[in-house]
Recover the amino acids of this structure.
DNA sequence: CGGATTTGACCGGCGC
DNA sequence: GCGCCGGTCAAATCCG
């Protein structure tokens, strides 16, 4: 079983490498005649309205590696001919136009390649860490299956970091007992997890200038704004070393969700235990504190409080990363909040940002749903306002087996989850995205476009990928649960930081 | 009886 | 230093 897990993970990593190679092909395919048309070729070949002689010119252009500007030399030599005719001048003008276009495409491809290179670099680092972690586990005393499951969770976490190590590292810092084996409980956070996480913490993180707390949200959201004071949980504190302390604010990324609900607490697929209730200043409604009980030691907490101004609105604020599998009903929401938090932590928000995040919310089925960033607060918070959804209860109370949470990425990646190859015991050697390309060509393009237009998308993508992997685990007959008392296990990424909430 | 909830006490951070 | 406030703990209580 352990070997199988390892093989899976390595396969996944390998597939990531394949992703890189394949993506490069998009750029360099012009020299590979055995491959199907690549984007550049497609771009030019799409000009079917052009005369044949121009098409031939396009073809000649695309015969050169777009990463090398050899095509430009060809054009310049041609344009330097003093005996050109009027037609030649016309065609040369067109060539110039095409040259500009080609340059633009090359530049675009270069950027894409750079992005992929960064991803690959992070990926390789993680791979090395995985190997180290697994070797360490192999030499250590055998642990129960519980521990192995947690290993899987940490591996999934790593997978997420492959996409965006920054955000993942930041998101996972709430994990307890990950840097100090002495404090960790036997059933949680195995050694390899500790090693991985410790290394991850060494990664440089983007700093958001600590500014004055400026609440960009209405009074209803004071609940989330106030969460920053947290801390104590002695167990967690023990795991923090001096270097990590300055980064603490990043670990407190929160996702606050506003939604209309009559119920005091809406099921979000996770199991929660109430551990406190307080009256918060400025709100006559008490604030309830919950912690995740799906796994022993899960650091995820949430606050639930009704909006003072509109008590039909329930505000749920999540913090922390699950260190255990999550049931399908929870993964949709979890991935969404993870994506939101990842976006928040990805570094693009350097000050008070009260915006409607286009890259994120554009994917929302309900146009009125907005995500508000408040990175200037002591702890960055992203608020998803679902109160204007046409029928919020539709997703809030949807059947667990068919989560219909109207948030980004979920539906898109369900396609991957359902793919037969994806469900196979062994992950394909082609990356999930490429693989999606087989059946859903537009998806890869969409993802690529999203990456180029919004770097933060990688973080969101990471969460979604994590969700996929988690779902796969639950689908391949492995019903292991981290917590014996927990419900259906599933993974949310421990990975994914904040969980979604509903409410 | 065991697990979940309630609720007052306690602690740490922060502002004055 | 003091008080306020948010967050957590843990004993008491409730509930299935």
């Amino acid at each position: 079983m352990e070997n199988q897990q390892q093989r899976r993970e390595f396969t996944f990593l390998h597939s990531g490498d394949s992703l890189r190679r394949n993506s490069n092909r998009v750029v360099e395919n012009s020299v590979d005649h055995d491959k199907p048309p690549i984007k550049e070729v497609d771009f030019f070949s799409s000009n079917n309205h052009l005369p044949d002689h121009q098409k031939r010119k396009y073809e000649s252009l695309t015969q050169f590696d777009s990463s090398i500007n050899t095509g430009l030399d060809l054009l310049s030599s041609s344009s330097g001919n003093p005996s050109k005719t009027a037609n030649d001048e016309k065609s040369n003008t067109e060539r110039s136009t095409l040259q500009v276009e080609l340059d633009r495409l090359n530049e675009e491809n270069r950027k894409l390649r750079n992005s992929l290179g960064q991803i690959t670099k992070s990926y390789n680092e993680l791979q090395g860490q995985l190997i180290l972690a697994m070797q360490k586990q192999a030499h250590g005393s055998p642990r129960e299956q519980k521990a192995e499951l947690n290993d899987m969770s940490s591996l999934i976490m790593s997978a997420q970091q492959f996409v965006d190590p920054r955000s993942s590292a930041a998101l996972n810092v709430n994990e307890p007992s990950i840097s100090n084996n002495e404090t960790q409980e036997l059933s949680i956070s195995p050694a390899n997890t500790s090693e991985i996480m410790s290394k991850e913490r060494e990664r440089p993180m983007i700093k958001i200038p600590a500014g004055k707390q400026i609440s960009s949200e209405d009074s209803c959201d004071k609940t989330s704004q106030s969460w920053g004071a947290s801390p104590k949980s002695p167990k967690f504190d023990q795991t923090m070393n001096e270097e990590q302390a300055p980064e603490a604010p990043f670990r407190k990324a929160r996702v606050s969700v506003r939604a209309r609900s009559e119920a005091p607490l809406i099921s979000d697929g996770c199991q929660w235990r109430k551990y406190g209730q307080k009256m918060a200043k400025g709100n006559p409604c008490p604030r309830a504190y919950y912690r995740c009980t799906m796994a022993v030691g899960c650091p995820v907490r949430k606050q639930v409080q009704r909006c003072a101004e509109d008590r039909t609105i329930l505000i749920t604020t999540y913090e922390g990363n699950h260190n255990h599998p999550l049931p399908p009903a929870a993964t949709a929401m979890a991935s969404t909040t993870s994506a939101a938090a990842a976006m928040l932590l990805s570094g693009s928000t350097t000050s008070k940002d009260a915006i409607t995040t286009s890259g994120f919310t554009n994917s929302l089925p309900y146009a009125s749903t907005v995500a508000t960033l408040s990175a200037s607060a002591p702890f960055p918070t992203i608020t998803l306002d679902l109160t204007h959804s046409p029928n919020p209860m539709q997703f809030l109370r949807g059947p667990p087996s068919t989560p219909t949470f109207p948030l980004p990425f979920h539906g898109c990646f369900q396609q991957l989850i359902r793919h037969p190859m994806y469900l196979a015991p062994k992950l394909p050697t082609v990356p999930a995205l490429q693989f999606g390309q087989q059946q859903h060509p537009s998806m890869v393009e969409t993802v690529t476009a999203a990456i180029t237009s919004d770097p933060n998308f990688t973080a969101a993508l990471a969460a979604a990928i994590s969700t996929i992997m988690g779902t796969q685990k639950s689908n391949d007959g492995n019903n292991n649960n981290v917590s014996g008392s927990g419900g259906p296990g599933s993974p949310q990424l421990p990975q994914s930081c904040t969980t979604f909430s509903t409410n």
